[in-house]
Here is the input.
Amino acid sequence: MELPIHLSKDSREPIYHQIENQLQALIAGGHLAAGTPLPSIRALSKDLEISIITTRRAYQDLEHKGFIRTSQGKGTFVAEVEDAKKQQVKISSVYQTIENAIDTALQYDYTLEQIEEIFEEIIHTQRNQKGE
Here is the structure.
């Protein structure tokens, strides 16, 4: 199984954290159902062209958080995750993304008012595209 994980080697965010966040998003968003088999650490490392240690760290963190489970000799699978936990991941992810966008804009010397105008413009465009 090939996972839609896209890594940015230019990002300040560690690779294992990028994997962890993207897998959490896939699980929380319902794209990976409970019981879905995941690639082995070796296979995912090879697909993403990263070290086994990095992939192992992401899998260990996800298992510790209850998003995946590993069964000796059988493999790694998506765990049964409570809806409240999934919702928490979704909210946290969206907030973090917006905060990062605001931080980026501030680094480019935009004022908070200018950033607010940009967000309003984006929301307006999205509404028009969705026919709201």
About this structure: DSSP finds five helices and three strands in the chain.
